[in-house]
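quick one before i forget lol
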Amino acid sequence: MSTILFLLLTWMTYAVAAAVVLTPIVFLARKRVHWHSWELLCLLFPFFIWVGLDFATGGKSLANLAIEPVILGLTLGVGALARVAMSTRMPEDRAALVAHFGSGWRRR
């Protein structure tokens, strides 16, 4: 039970850090970029990958578990800024793939 509670608290820390960065970006770019509901998965996938790697190594201290989710949440702003920057150069769907997964862009 304590592990689930700790993971939930860690995810909340991650989500709050992401919200602090993403809220102004999404608000200011709302007319330029159309955000899709599937992009909310960016709040889940990086965290689950981080938790999986954490359990695989097992050598994390409490400092790592308190600071790394915040850093991971803050880095979501980089993907959102990349999506906004690319929105004028390529179609929105392709820009979303490039920003979130790093692929999907072909030169013609």
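fyi The chain has five helices and no strands.
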